[in-house]
Specification:
78% of the residues lie in helices and 0% in strands. By secondary structure, it is mainly α.
Length: 188
Amino acid sequence: MEVSITEIINKTKQIFINPKGFWVAKKEEESFSTVFTGFLFPIILVVATSVFIGELLRRSDFIIEIPLLNALQIFVLFLLQYIVSVFFTNELIKTFGGEKDKTISKNLVAYSMTPLLLIFTVTRLVPFLGILNILGFYGFYIFWIGVDELLIIPDKRKSGYALITILVNFFVFCFLSLLLSKLIAAYY
């Protein structure tokens, strides 16, 4: 799979500017390799690189181990978040009377993670902009719109599904973040 930076930028702009139009256009399913290797994985690599550079620039000593561990922590965090979120997003569909579809769940999670990933890229490079992390919650809106457009769930239960799934995925992110930071802290 070839990674196109232009395509990643165009998809990102579409997601941010017109999420509803983006999801309507995505009703045809993209393959896992297109979404993961052609979109999400390169963005996660950019985030990890920005964490590494940001940590390295803030250090007075030039010990590379700690910035490398922090970059690895963020890399693993977002990969695990994606995997676990896809699982919960897909499994909760049946609970709300819908038809499970792993491909749509993968797309929903990958594209709705985009705002958080981009905000992390900026705030980990320039830490005094940390207040901007709140903008990552825009991903919840993107997810909500995607649920409405893509999933086959009874209309009266879509809002409940979206809310519960967002909360579950948020708590998973908090748990994974805490767990990985404790593991890294135990190392050094």
